[in-house]
Amino acid sequence: MSHMEIILGVIFVFFLFYIALLGRENKQLTKEQSEWEAIPTLEEYLRKYPSCKTNFGIRCNYCNSNRFRAWGRSSKHDPQRVMICFHCNNAAYKLES
Ligand SMILES: [Zn+2]
């Protein structure tokens, strides 16, 4: 084994280590992402709970309230919004734009 091969080997090991670290950070990001993904869109919500669509608007599937507050995903002005029930804090559905 030449000197050059050893150096390349060491660089390679560091490279693998770096990739592993990056993967860990991505996992934390995707956890937040998957929590967001778990909230149904309005269409999915109404497919899941057809009776939640009433003449007075959308109802909460837990407490039947039809009052929601639109909560920005990461900030007040985030166009991605979660509709949270005013009464029971159930995250009912999301609006993506
Ligand atoms: Zn509710």
Folded structure, characterized:
By secondary structure, the chain is α+β, with helices and mostly antiparallel strands. The chain has 2 domains: 1-38; 40-97, no CATH class. Helix content is 44%, strand content 20%. It has helices at residues 3-38, 42-48, and strands spanning 53-54, 57-58, 68-72, 81-85, 91-95. It has a 3-stranded antiparallel beta sheet. The chain has a two-stranded antiparallel sheet with strand order 1-2. A hairpin with an 8-residue loop joins strand 3 (68-72) and strand 4. The mean pLDDT is 92. The protein binds zinc ion. Zinc ion binds at residues 60, 62-63, 65, 85, 87-88, 90. Residues 60, 62-63, 65, 85, 87-88, 90 line the site of zinc ion (ZN). Keywords: Membrane, Transmembrane, Transmembrane helix. The chain crosses the membrane at residues 6-23.
What is the count of DSSP helices, taking H or I runs of 4+ residues? 2
Q: Order of strands in the sheet with the most strands? A: 3-4-5
- Order of SSEs: HHEEEEE
Bound molecules: zinc ion
Number of beta strands: 5
The oligomerization state is single chain
Radius of gyration: 23 Å
Helix amount, in percent?
A: 40-55%
Shape: rod-shaped
Largest sheet: 3 strands, antiparallel
Measure the end-to-end span.
Answer: 58 Å
Taken together, the total number of domains comes to 2
Mean pLDDT: 92
Transmembrane segments: 6-23
Keywords: Membrane, Transmembrane, Transmembrane helix
